[in-house]
From TrEMBL:
Keywords: DNA-binding
Sample GO molecular function, one term: DNA-binding transcription factor activity
Organism: [Actinomadura] parvosata subsp. kistnae
InterPro entries: Homeodomain-like_sf, HTH-type_TetR-like_transc_reg, HTH_TetR
The name this protein goes by in its record: TetR family transcriptional regulator
DNA-binding residues: 29-48
Domain HTH tetR-type, chain residue ranges per copy: 6-66
């Protein structure tokens, strides 16, 4: 049974997801989120204080899919690249939150920090892309693909998901 408190939390999370994607984490206040759901700032803070608890709750469901992406066996490098594109497009608002906002706020690379987790995820993807024979060409293509996916997903929140997916898949074919 869903309680009123659960519904309120869900509405707050939905508004935060949308506002963080639109404006960025740093530019979105608890007051902005409260206004979007018709609550007071105090009511939002009751559920999520400090604001980074909101971000962490938005990120936690992605962690399982991230691990599944990295742990799954793929028939080929191309199959992994396609799955990576799908992941980047599906979670582009969360990737923006990680890349532009949370990582910028966390200047350290201390073990377990957001920046450390981003670096570990990136390095694991890179290792899967280059495989066992990381020659110069595949290394360059892998970094280029990671850059295209990261920024292509992050900077296109205003475009339809299908269009972003199609273009990124086309770019990935060059890989």
């Amino acid at each position: 049974m869903t309680t009123s408190s659960d519904d309120t939390r869900s509405r707050i999370l939905a508004a935060a997801r949308e506002l963080f994607a639109e404006r960025g984490y740093a530019a979105t206040s608890l007051s902005d989120i409260a206004a979007a759901v018709g609550l007071t700032k105090t009511a939002v803070a009751y559920h999520f204080h400090p604001k980074d608890r909101l971000a962490l709750e938005l990120l936690s469901p992605v962690a399982g899919d991230m691990l599944a992406l990295l742990d799954a066996p793929y028939a080929s490098r191309a199959a992994f690249v396609e799955a990576l594109v799908e992941f980047a497009v599906r979670y582009r608002s969360v990737i923006r939150l990680f890349m532009e906002d949370l990582a910028a706020d966390d200047a350290t690379t201390a073990p377990g920090s957001e920046r450390d987790q981003i670096a570990t995820f990136r390095d694991t993807i890179y290792a899967k892309l280059v495989g066992d024979d990381p020659g110069p060409e595949i290394r360059l293509k892998s970094w280029a693909l990671l850059g295209a996916l990261q920024w292509g997903a992050v900077k296109t929140a205003d475009l339809p998901e299908e269009q972003v997916r199609d273009v990124l898949l086309e770019i990935a074919k060059a890989f």
